[in-house]
Write a structure and sequence with these properties.
Length: 80
Amino acid sequence: MTMDEIDEIVQRQQAERHRRPDENKFRTQQLRNVLNIIFMAVAVVGVGIYLSGKPLVGTYVFLASMPFKLVEVAIRILKR
């Protein structure tokens, strides 16, 4: 085997390991990030309202954030 053949094999193996990320996977990750940001923002607002002296309203606001997290978790589990 010549050095050129060895270099070609090494380059082929490196190209297989360092391929570009799948576009669909990238979009799924972006969607999950957006859902997590919405969940965190609404949850923080809910906790703030809860601690400011309106526990019932704060609880409802916090519970309103839960569907966003549930959808994100479902996407994470189903996309494996």
